[in-house]
Design a protein that fits this description.
The protein has about 140 residues and is α+β, with helices and mostly antiparallel strands. It contains four helices and eight strands, in the order ββββααββαββα. It has one domain: Transcriptional regulator MraZ domain (Chemotaxis protein chec, 3-Layer(aba) Sandwich), CATH 3.40.1550.20. The two termini are about 25 Å apart.
Amino acid sequence: MAFHGTFEHSLDAKHRLTVPSKLRAAFSEGAFLVKGADRCISLYPSAIYSALVDAALSGMNPLSAQARELNRYFRSNAHAVELDSAGRVMIATRQLEHAGIDRDVVVIGAGDCLELWDPSSWADYDSDLTARGPDITASLGHPS
């Protein structure tokens, strides 16, 4: 399943996010909350995140410094979670701090995962992304 769309939500007092109901089935086998490379948190279905990490590390000498660092990066920044009966997932304080999220959150579809953003950070990023859209598509050889 590819995730699409933008949703505005609020975390509850226990730092739980209610996953949009139409997207919950994708996380029925578990999920990973991952500190994003950008200032966001990614929510991956377990199987997809595991496959991405395995693919990124495949072919590398597991004893090499680069493989060890990537392994640490991918695994130390990912927390296995499950949605509760109400479709909520609890987000760790450390992850919220990384993304600058307090209570309000923007959830965006990002293909293989959902991304959780602070509303102000997302607005700034989205505005910049929209402005660069023609250049991004042109770099792929597509007309804008």
